[in-house]
Every structure is written in C-alpha cells, then in structure tokens.
Amino acid sequence: MSFAVSLRKVFLLSAVIAGPATAFAQSAPANLLPPERSIAHQPVEADADAVASEMTAVQDASPLPAEAAPALPWSLDNAGKLLAVAEAIGAEGLDPADYNLPALRAAIAGGTGPVLDQAAARVFAWLVEDMRDGRTPMTHRKQWFVMDPDADRYPTDKLMADALASGDIAAAIQSVAPVHPDYARLRDALGATPQSDGAKRKLIRANMDRWRWLARDLGPQYLMTNVPEYQLRLTVNHKIVKTYRTIVGKPGRQATPQLAESVEGVIFNPTWTVPQSIVKGEGLGARVLGNPAWAKKAGYTATKGANGFVTVVQQPGPGNSLGFMKLDMPNRHAIFLHDTPNRNLFAAANRALSHGCVRTERASELAITLAILQAGLTADEGVAKLKSGKYTRVPFTKKMPVYITYFTYGTDIDGKLRGFGDIYERDAPVLASLDAPRVANRPRITDEEVIEILDDPRA
Length: 459
Prior knowledge:
This protein has helices spanning 3-18, 48-57, 76-87, 101-109, 114-133, 150-153, 156-166, 169-174, 181-192, 198-213, 276-279, 284-290, 292-298, 363-375, 379-387, 427-435; strands spanning 221-226, 231-236, 239-249, 259-268, 272-273, 300-304, 310-314, 325-328, 337-338, 352-354, 358-360, 392-405, 409-411, 417-419. It is of the alpha+beta class. The chain folds into 2 domains: 3-54 and 217-405, L,D-transpeptidase catalytic domain-like; 64-212 and 426-435, no CATH class. The strands form 3 sheets. Strands 1, 2, 3, 4, 8, 9, 10, 11 and 12 form a 9-stranded mixed sheet that branches. It has a 3-stranded antiparallel sheet with strand order 5-7-6. The radius of gyration is 25 Å and the shape is elongated.
C-alpha cells in the first residue's frame, strides 16, 4: 500500500471518529461503524487510565489466600443451588471433578451447620477462583506476564456474602466470567463439540481459560494483538474499528511475551538507539566512526565517550529501522509496537520474524488514529507531524491499554472461529494442566525469567 493511500485511510477513519460532519464521513467504509453512532458520540463506560493503572497495581500483590472464605451460614437451599452450578460447570470449560462434590453432597445430607458451611464455602471459593482467575497455574503459563486485577476487583468473600444474601448463587459465580464476546463464542463452540472429539474440546477449554487469565473487562478502548494470528485489533467503545497485520518474535528467546501494558503516547519519526550487542558485538560502532559517508547515508550518528564507550543512534528518515512511528509503552521487557521499512514482509504467511517487538502494518495510519483518539489531534495535525520528518512525541491525555495475547483457537478478524498455529509451543503445558489435579493456593505472579528484548528491527 502506498504512503498516500495509507494517509487517505487515516482521513476516512478520522471522519468516522469526528462524526458525520465532514465530507469524508460519507465515503467511510459502511462496515467500520454504524453511521448513526460515530466513535465520538458513543459513551465511554470506563476510564482507560483506570483500566491501565489497575493492570499494574497488582504487580507486588501477595498470592491468593488459601481458598479463604468467611464462616458464613449456608442454607440447604443455597447449598443445593451451589451443587447444581458445580455439576454444570463443564459448560464453562471446567471440570466438576475438581470441586470435591461428593463432600458437598454428604454435607447437604447432614443438614445445616459448620460442616455444610465449610464444604460449601470451599466449593464456592474454588469455582470463583477458577472462573475469575483461570484454572491453569502460573507454572504452566509460559511467558505470561499479565497482571490480572480481578481478584482485587471481585474479592471472593464479598461475592459469597452477596450471593448468600440474594440467594442467586449462579449469578454470583457467573459475574466473574470474561465479558469479551470471544469467550462466549468459545463456550458455544464447546457446547457444540461432541464429547468424542476430545482433542478439540481440550483446545477450546485451554483458550477459554486464557481469557480468564486476563481482566474480566478489558475496558472500552484498547489495542490487542493475538501473536499466533499475526493480527492487531484497535477496539473503540467495545467495537473493533480497525485491524492490522503484525510481525512478531521468532520462536525461542526472541519469542514475544504475553503482556498487558499501557501506551502513553505515540512517537512520529522515531530515532533508534542501537543495542550494544550490535554496536560492539557486530562492529557497527567502529564502522560508523570509520566511514562517515556511509554512516550519514544510513542515518547513523555515533558518540564515543572518554572511556571508549560508543553510542550509536539512527536518526529519523525513510530508512530508519523503526520506520515512521513507534508506540511509547514503557515496560521491563522493552517490548513495543512500531513501523518497519521492510513492509513487504507483511505479505508472508509466517510472520514470526522479529527479535521480539511487534511490527505493525500501516503503522502511520495507526499512529495518526491514536493521536486523534488519545491526544485530541486533528488528522491534519497528525499528518503534519508525520511528514515533518522530525522526532516528535505526542503524549496521550489518557493511557491506552494494550494486550499482547496468545490464543490458538478463537475468532479471527473475519469473524470466523478457527485455530491458529501454536508457533511458540505454549499449548502443551496448558493442555497438560487440564488433565492434572487442580492446584490450590495458586500465585498470581509468575516467577519466570523476564527476557529483556534487545530488538534488532533490521532483521
């Protein structure tokens, strides 16, 4: 796609964002958003800053309590309702055998009292934890660094107290299930898949559980990329308004981790500070210092300190390895979304080609769109900053959540439910955990190594 065509698409999208009062609105794609409800005129149900801050608020949280539950009295009626929910929990991709239902049945038969209270409280807490936080323990979530805030948002003790007061046990447990429509699609698919197709059922269950690893509600406005699908979605007011092809990390230590972070701004015409593994390890520093003509043509500048340390920076320009934009999303993994001058690679079927960062198709269009949505720029202002050729950081007025996920079965960008290649072989441990006994007292934070990505966007 040419640069001019990409910018024209930005104007079309900005017209939809701004409402129908521009000439572009009439020519915007009909399936982008219903014309009577532009993005600007739809209510935002939640503050994106609040969603983003909650994702990081639990980073130092302690592990989940050991099925902690208050000693509240359970009536036989409420206990019977709980038993019915647990017996039918297979519809949610969970296994009734995990919840020691014979003990609950025996306690119900014995009548009200402390034994019933403890048995019912334990089953309720286990069901809530698995529905809210996922059944898969952290040891089986490979390179999963998402901080799920739901245990703080929906504490078990309050859910139980409210459920016993209302008598609606099923609603209380269902209230912590993911609200994303893809979860409902998977649940329906599980119900339609015969028991004889055990492999497909397990794959669906594994991906339903992956939704539970995320926050129940992702917020009204966010970016989400599904790594095995090689696609990025821009969601505004709960509607997917644009999709973009992506290039992700190669398998191995350069594999893209799974994160929930925040985008704080967009950088037009970025510079690239070259990692020392390239400056020193590949001799780029010496080449830049020794061949000024070549360095100028390639856009490199080098600084040599008194101690001999060489810093190399590639300046903005059409040959910059980060392309024309990158998203400012500080995180300890050094992962971000950016453009690339090698746009021909987006036509490849297998796009696990990078050193870990996520390269984005039509990145200039995305950058201007986000500047309109999150910084209040007009399309003209965004285009001007892009075409200036100068490094320009545009801070957002509200942070935007970005989710880097890993689903191997789900809804694709065409709305079809299908499988995606398990490019990093992350399914096997999740599938194994479904066959293993339920793990109690699961930690909320992974102890897996954080691999800082020293990205080489030239590759």
